[in-house]
């Protein structure tokens, strides 16, 4: 994690308002998720993605659950992520996992 060690901002945002934590969770890289959390990444921050329905917001946990990234979900839950947080369409991460039929995440 050289860039984090050199004081890169763990909460920096890209044009979609994703932070590195959102990207790491979407990709399921639990080691990077752990490093970002240790560097102070805001665990409950929302991203903002423009969709046909408007601007969609989601937490890193909702993204990980939606993509079936079990290890990233585990890291976020252990870090104290708000399990009741709702994304733009009103779903919790658990509901996203159910919709996407990610049984391993539902059981976690």
Automatic annotation (TrEMBL):
<dbReference type="InterPro" id="IPR002110">
    <property type="entry name" value="Ankyrin_rpt"/>
</dbReference>
<protein>
    <recommendedName>
        <fullName>Ankyrin repeat protein</fullName>
    </recommendedName>
</protein>
<keyword id="KW-0677">Repeat</keyword>
<dbReference type="Pfam" id="PF12796">
    <property type="entry name" value="Ank_2"/>
</dbReference>
<feature type="repeat" description="ANK">
    <location>
        <begin position="16"/>
        <end position="48"/>
    </location>
</feature>
<feature type="repeat" description="ANK">
    <location>
        <begin position="56"/>
        <end position="88"/>
    </location>
</feature>
<keyword id="KW-0040">ANK repeat</keyword>
<dbReference type="InterPro" id="IPR036770">
    <property type="entry name" value="Ankyrin_rpt-contain_sf"/>
</dbReference>
């Amino acid at each position: 994690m050289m860039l984090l060690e050199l004081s890169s901002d763990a909460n920096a945002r890209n044009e979609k308002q994703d932070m590195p934590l959102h990207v790491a969770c979407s990709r399921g890289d639990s080691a990077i998720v752990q490093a970002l959390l240790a560097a102070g990444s805001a665990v409950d921050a929302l991203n903002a993605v423009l969709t046909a329905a408007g601007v969609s917001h989601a937490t890193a946990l909702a993204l990980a659950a939606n993509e079936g990234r079990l290890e990233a979900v585990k890291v976020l839950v252990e870090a104290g992520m708000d399990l009741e947080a709702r994304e733009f369409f009103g779903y919790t991460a658990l509901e996203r996992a159910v919709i996407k039929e990610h049984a391993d995440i539902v059981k976690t």
